[in-house]
Amino acid sequence: MPIAKQEKFRCPWSLGFDQYIEYHDKEWGVPVHDDNVHFEFLILEGAQAGLSWSTILKKREGYRKAFANFDPKKVARFTEAKLEKLLLDPGIVRNRLKVYAAVNNAKRFLEVQKEFGTFDKYIWSFVGGKPIVGKLKTLKEIKPTTPESDALSKDLIKRGFKFVGSTVIYAHMQACGLVNDHLVDCFRYHEVPKR
Question: Which residues are catalytic?
Answer without folding.
Answer: 23, 45, 53
